[in-house]
Specification:
It contains 7 helices and 3 strands. It has 138 residues and is mainly alpha-helical. It has a single domain, classed as Orthogonal Bundle (Lysozyme), CATH 1.10.530.
Length: 138
């Protein structure tokens, strides 16, 4: 599969589909810092894939079942190499966390990284810094 970049339209479409503010998707992208084709290793042996750093251990089986007839290799490749697909799945994951957090975006941002309160707080701070940078507030 050839690399497919993330475009502004991808972000807008994903945000609209998941009914979340586009700025939050942009903030997640900046905070995650993933790249097309990337597989970032984690200390637990899992990998985070692509621009929104979708965790392979947690999400590849789900995505494979939902979109690829259970084919985990194809799901992994799509998440790693197709920017728009990765953003759509990342936005879908974020939407689930928004629902889990009863609409609390700050909590959902933390959940995107971890449900551990210490890790959540650290990530929420990084996310806030990302938004400030993105919107010229620092």
């Amino acid at each position: 599969m050839a690399f497919v970049p993330v475009t502004p339209q991808c972000v807008m479409d994903a945000a609209r589909l998941q009914q979340v503010p586009p700025a939050l998707i942009l903030g997640l992208l900046k905070t995650e810092g993933g790249k097309l084709g990337s597989e970032s290793p984690n200390s637990d042996g899992s990998y985070d894939l692509g621009p929104m750093q979708v965790n392979d251990r947690v999400w590849v089986p789900v995505v494979a079942k939902l979109h690829f007839h259970g084919d985990r290799d194809t799901a992994r490749e799509a998440l790693r190499d197709h920017g728009c697909y990765n953003v759509n799945i990342g936005a879908w994951i974020f939407r689930q966390y928004v629902d889990e957090a009863n609409g609390d975006y700050a909590k959902a941002v933390g959940y995107y990284n971890s449900h551990n309160p210490v890790h959540m707080a650290r990530y929420q701070k990084r996310f806030a810094d990302s938004l400030k940078t993105l919107f010229g507030l620092r």
